[in-house]
Amino acid sequence: VMAMLQNIPAVINRFLPSSRQELARFTSLQGLECIAPLVKTVEETPQPVTADLSGEIPSWINGNFLRNGPGKFEFGNQKYNHWFDGMALLHQFKIENGTVKYKSKFLQSDTFKINSEHDRIVVSEFGTLAMPDPCKNVFQRFVSWFEMQKPTDNGSVHYVKYMGDYYVSTETNYMHKVDPETLASMEKVDWSKFVAVNGATAHPHYDPNGTSYNMGNSYGRQGTRYNIIRVPPQKTNDSDTLQGAQIICSIPPQDGAKPSYYHSFGMTENYVVFIEQPIKLNLLKIITAKMRGKCLSDGIKWEPDHETVIHVASKQTGQLIPVKYYAKPLAMFHQINAFEDQGCIVLDLCFSDEGGVLTNYQIQNLRKSGQALDEVYNTTARTFPRRFVLPLTVDSSTATGQNLNTLPYSSATAVKRDDGKVFVTHEDLHLDDLVEAGGLEFPQINYAKYNTKKYRYFYGCGFRHLVGDSLLKMDIDTKEMKEKNTFLLVLDAKSFTELGRAAVPVKMPYGFHGVFASSKQ
């Protein structure tokens, strides 16, 4: 971990604030509505039911709107501890000729099936440690504490698409191919059978030709690595899943014993942008978690004494560019967009200045009410859309102490320090009204039209509660916000056109993710 900034001339102070953690934005709301019904087990609805509609759906919107998220929070008398632990429930809204029919099915993962068979939690999840089999004798139960935990295949995070097929994904090495029409679980796919990774994110990126990019960690002879993965756009055989996938770049972490947790990454036309943030995976704690009677989340901590490091790699060559960018400690889960302009990368992210949010989403917290619920919300740092500008050409001849961002439309700064490293500060992409809306998360653009390109609008969820309570449209040029107080399954025609009609990945409220699979691709 690099040392604190030292001996920086006073002349550049206006460009270079301290890299230490800034005061995170919190709130003091009172009287929040209880949201316990959102985190209770529900029954699946395998047979389609007709939905009641308010208003009219444009005739040109036809297809399956797919969602994914946790839907079962206990087996027998054993309960999950964290929102991320619940069993994946797949949702389908079939939109056709102005009508909507809904159905849902639980993902038939190995985890779901073995838990159901034994009527208890057999497979550990992010925030829940599975207890030893009570049918084993005392010695067998003792020995089981020293066995390595097997990764879950509970794909509850996101719908993703590879080589034309739909998958539901979590952040382990397992995905499940699903049929978007029937919601049937078709095939379990293991990333590690194709590339040397121990997991992959649930937020890949796509080139216009269908080539997919993702990232995943590996822990092997070479030490810990962050790996950029490329998946070809088409199959060679009908049975292909991830055949042809390859690692194009491996990035060593700042601390091999404590690599960073990441949920997504950025991509431009020519580069992959990886944000190494100070939410740290303590590998020793994670490896020993089971024998210590702890769950996986016990080994993930916010460590704000570390700076954020931004790495940039060429998609064509797989090589890291020579310069790394350093920023204050930040906690980021979702990127908005990234594009290249006048020799710079413009990187737009949603992030907060404090990274302890994962603990707040324990189920016991989400089921609180009254003052106790208010306290949980008011101790959760707000997340806001922000922009970094990364100058691509920085070498030994580049002057220190000067703002290297020459883009006239951005106030973000990038300053080469005396130690040769580039420190970047962000520009806010919002006005004060977004603070009143509780910040913004789950950002989305018209991906098919504007991914990796300069754009003006994006959408997201406002958070005046622990879960999204409003739909926001942000204008980057003016930084103005437009708000809808209720979530709509289908937006008005103008907004839907801006989002894009064909297979646009969308991020949904309450932590659910999904895609719209258009019938007019």
From TrEMBL:
Keywords: Dioxygenase, Iron, Lipid metabolism, Metal-binding, Mitochondrion, Oxidoreductase. Its EC number is 1.13.11.71. Its cofactor is Fe(2+). One of its GO terms (molecular function) is carotenoid dioxygenase activity. InterPro entries: Carotenoid_Oase. Pfam families: RPE65 (PF03055). One of its GO terms (cellular component) is mitochondrion. Binds 1 Fe(2+) ion per subunit. It catalyses: 5-cis-lycopene + O2 = 5-cis-10'-apo-lycopenal + (3E,5E)-6,10-dimethylundeca-3,5,9-trien-2-one; all-trans-zeaxanthin + O2 = (3R)-3-hydroxy-10'-apo-beta-carotenal + (3R)-hydroxy-beta-ionone; all-trans-beta-carotene + O2 = beta-ionone + all-trans-10'-apo-beta-carotenal; lutein + O2 = (3R,6R)-hydroxy-alpha-ionone + (3R)-3-hydroxy-10'-apo-beta-carotenal. GO terms for biological process: carotene catabolic process; retinal metabolic process. Fe cation binds at H203, H263, H334. It comes from the Eukaryota. Its main location: mitochondrion. It is found in: Mitochondrion. Belongs to the carotenoid oxygenase family. Broad specificity mitochondrial dioxygenase that mediates the asymmetric oxidative cleavage of carotenoids. Cleaves carotenes (pure hydrocarbon carotenoids) such as all-trans-beta-carotene and lycopene as well as xanthophylls (oxygenated carotenoids) such as zeaxanthin, lutein and beta-cryptoxanthin at both the 9,10 and the 9',10' carbon-carbon double bond. Through its function in carotenoids metabolism regulates oxidative stress and the production of important signaling molecules. This is Carotenoid-cleaving dioxygenase, mitochondrial. The gene is BCO2.
